[in-house]
Amino acid sequence: MSERAIRLHTPVELAAGVRFGLDARATHYLAKVMRATSGDVVRLFNARDGEWRAELTVAKRAVTATALERVRPAAVEPGPTLAVAALKRARLELVVEKATELGVAAIQPLATARAVVDRVNHDRLAAIATEAAEQSERLTVPAIAPLRPLDAVLAERAGDRPLYAAVERADASGLAEAVAAHGAGDLLIGPEGGFAAAERAALAAAPGVVAVSLGPRVLRAETAAIAGLAVLALRMSG
Amino acid sequence: MSERAIRLHTPVELAAGVRFGLDARATHYLAKVMRATSGDVVRLFNARDGEWRAELTVAKRAVTATALERVRPAAVEPGPTLAVAALKRARLELVVEKATELGVAAIQPLATARAVVDRVNHDRLAAIATEAAEQSERLTVPAIAPLRPLDAVLAERAGDRPLYAAVERADASGLAEAVAAHGAGDLLIGPEGGFAAAERAALAAAPGVVAVSLGPRVLRAETAAIAGLAVLALRMSG
To answer: Same structural domain for residues A53 and A94?
Structure first.
């Protein structure tokens, strides 16, 4: 047996002795990219069962894993939800990767008046989140919600959890100060051109929304998302 | 005259009535990308003279600018210096762009034992910093220092300014807490594989170095740089 520094998410239930074939993505990665061979030991994880050592059997077109023993118990990974306007493809992909590393619990792409796209590649974003979770030693993979309008997302929120909305407004307090005052919450990042007037009115009327500033400079939307999560997630995870 | 939402850095001295030909980069951007025409008014800025309205004269192969009046005075833009291991090209370029948006004063690429490259494209990094400064309403463009070894950079530092070194070490305090305790300072981010033993010893012996944590997850080096600057620069700029 050879321990490999490889860590893969699996949707399959993990328990001692469980044996199962890996999916196409994991098979390709293990057999072609990492040149895994039978007897190699890797780590597998999912949100329910924690992280397990697992031994591989590599055949011509399939890789089978046998779970050996658990090395990390399942754990809740508390983190903010990020609601972010549908940015251009590369920028949204960057946000998903970095948000996952920074501990986000879920990502909600938003359709807004000034959003640059009206559809997002959900499967591609979910794959990026999975890979970033594997790389960053997370046990959970953040859920990528389907694209929805801002008002529908606001209508569903419980008003007792703060939603920190990054705005370019002189009277907004700094995010770190707002989190110190209001506690753990979620982050809302608008599109490159900002929210439209009707959206700003909806935000002002929604319970729990706290307008925050991310400093004196003009940040691109993806920078605002990553910077805001850095401040928020690092504070929430201690 | 037509006001254009265009903002360009220039190395030329700006004063009322000063007239000068723009360089190849600005000429290309104005004439080809933005399709500027004679009479268009843009903003020009540099660190010494602040930001100016300037009227363009667009000829076949040259664009001339005439400074009209100052709209923002020169200002000191305090920010941390980022010392960062020479990452792979795309990752280092991302760091330079985002660090500039987040207000970094200067960027020092580091040659380290485990750095993935032994040279960086200095001109390309400087151009990225310039473009990010133009986009983010900065008045200054962060200097990109030439690649140097970690020990040379450490030897030159004054010990009274903290250098926050992101390390994966259980006893390191969180960056936000460290900044609250020690005050404004600079940020040090190692290579993807971490610092080598000799480098860790040099860091431990260097005056002013404060080991800090960026949370419980494993961050890619470029994520650590951006997240650390978000925490540090937002705090330093108020």
So the answer is: no
Distance from CA of A8 to the nearest CA of B (A): 15
Verify whether the Cβ–Cβ distance B233 to A215 is below 8 Å. Answer: yes
The total domain count for chain A is: 2
Residues of A in contact with B228 (CB under 8 A): 230
Over residues A23-49, the mean pLDDT reads 94
Mutate to test the interface with B, among A97, A101, A128, A229 (most CBs of B within 10 A): A101
With CB atoms and an 8 Å threshold, state whether A227 touches B226.
yes
How many Å lie between the alpha carbon of A99 and the closest alpha carbon of chain B?
9
Residue A197's Cβ-count burial label (10 Å; 0-12, 13-18, 19+) is exposed
Residue B238: predicted pLDDT: 45
Domain of A48? 2-72
Same domain, yes or no, for A168 and A193?
yes
Out of A138, A219, A235, whose CB is closest to B136?
A: A219
Q: Do B187 and B166 touch, CB atoms closer than 8 A?
A: yes
- For residue range B82-104, what is the model confidence (pLDDT) as tens digits? 999 999 999 999 999 999 999 99
ipTM of the complex as predicted: 0.89
User: B-side interface with A, Cβ within 8 Å?
Assistant: 94, 98, 101-103, 135-138, 174-176, 214-220, 223, 226-231, 233-235, 237-238
* pLDDT tens figures, A60-113: 889 999 999 999 999 888 899 999 999 999 999 999 999 999 999 999 999 999
Residues 6+ apart with CB under 8 A from B18: B12, B66, B67
Alpha-carbon distance of B26 to B45, in angstroms, equals 13
- pTM, whole model, 2 decimals? 0.91
Best of B97, B101, B168 to disrupt the A interface (most A CBs within 10 Å) is B101
DSSP B68-123: EEEEE--------EEEEE---HHHHHHHHHHHHHTT-SEEEEEE-TT-S-S---HH
When CB atoms are compared, the residue of B101, B174, B214 closest to A217 is B101
Whether the predicted pLDDT of A171 surpasses 80: no
* Nearest residue to B2 via CA among B56, B74, B70: B56
Same domain for B144 and B178, yes or no, is: yes
* Residue whose C-alpha is closest to residue A190's, from A104, A113, A125, A137: A113
| B97 lies in the same domain as B205 | yes
More confident residue, A233 or A139: A139
Report how far apart, in Å, the C-alpha atoms of B85 and of each of B32, B90, B141, B169 are.
36, 13, 20, 18
Helix axes B175-182, B221-237, angle to 10 degrees: 40
